[in-house]
Amino acid sequence: MKLIRAKDYADVSVKAGNIIASVVTLKPDCVLGLATGSSPVGTYKELIKKYEAGELDFSQVKTVNLDEYVGLSKDHDQSYAYFMRNNLFDHVNIDQANCNIPSGLTDDPEAECGNYDKLIGQLHTDLQLLGMGPNGHIGFNEPDEVFIPGTHCVKLAESTIDANQRFFASRDDVPRQAYTMGIWGIMQAKKVLMVVNGKNKAQAVKAMFTGPIDPKVPASILQLHPDCTIVADEEALSLLDL
Ligand code: GLP
Questions:
Q1: Which of 39, 83, 200 to mutate for ligand 1's pocket (most ligand atoms within 8 Å of CB)?
Q2: pLDDT digits (tens, 9 = 90+) for 147-184
Q3: In whole angstroms, what is the distance from residue 194 CA to residue 16 CA?
Q4: Which of 31, 85, 133, 225 is the most buried (most CB within 10 A)?
Q5: All domains of the chain, ordered by start, with CATH?
Q6: What is the pLDDT of residues 84-107, one digit of tens each?
Q7: What is the pLDDT averaged over residues 222-236?
């Protein structure tokens, strides 16, 4: 794993934005794997700035998102489909017909997950952007006894419900389940880019870098990826002695 040290969240966002911009510039019809949560919001703002400055063209870009809450429609203001429109897609010249996110309202989860994996296999992601949960989760791959390769429905960890309740009116409103791309879906990307900031991620960052590859710390699997870059700020790196 390659580590890029950033000063703070703003610096993480600029550096990650530059990396993604270089992929889009080199390959205008690239496939971007995209993430939600607060970590990538600044990165998306940087991409929007570059688009507005005429430096980036998203017209041929395709995207495939990591995850979606079970039970939320794409118009629910806490759905990840809504998040992506609000934080990126509505602000750049991307064709939203080329933007893929699992449906939170499917009545056939098995088919939805199987089809999503077929799509990932066909697209072959050029760069997968990731955040990381405080417990080391990536996408919604929660700590578990095994790494689950394919897209699947997951029961969210209590700590994830706690962490994500800030986006909802109350804890009770946080969905208890989500569909997430599995570990294969993430690892098949040609490049992986993680953005991570803040003290509450420091323990997970340390475990991801220095611990064993362990499904109890899902992000530790990234040690096996041939082209994985972590852009982290000083607080997130505060427990790492590298
Ligand atoms: C959610 C998302 C993850 C994200 C995580 C961290 O659980 N499913 O993809 O990495 O939140 O969120 P934040 O960046 O807000 O700390």
A1: 39
A2: 999 999 999 999 999 989 999 999 999 999 999 999 99
A3: 8
A4: 133
A5: 2-228 (3.40.50.1360)
A6: 999 999 999 999 999 999 999 999
A7: 98
CA-CA distance, 144 to 136, in Å (whole number)? 11
Q: pTM above 0.85?
A: yes
Q: Fill in the DSSP letter of residue 138.
A: B
Q: What angle do CA 233, 189, 126 make, to 5 degrees?
A: 90
Strand partners, 63: 32, 99
Measured at the CA of 62, the angle between CA 71 and CA 1, to 5 degrees, comes to 90
**pLDDT score for 93:** 98
66 close to ligand 1 (CB < 6 Angstrom): yes
- Return all residues near 54 (Cβ < 8 A) that are at least 6 apart: none
CB of 36 closer than 6 angstroms to any ligand 1 atom: yes
Q: Mean pLDDT throughout 10-38?
A: 98
CA of 87 to the centre of ligand 1 (A): 14
List all residues 6 or more positions away from 97 whose beta carbon is below 8 Å from its beta carbon. none
**Model pLDDT for residues 40-91, shown as the tens digit of each residue:** 999 999 999 999 999 999 999 999 999 999 999 999 999 999 999 999 999 9
- Asked if 42 and 13 count as a contact pair (C-beta separation under 8 A), the reply is yes
Task: Give the three-class secondary structure for 158.
Answer: helix
Q: Does the C-beta of 132 come closer than 6 Å to ligand 1?
A: yes
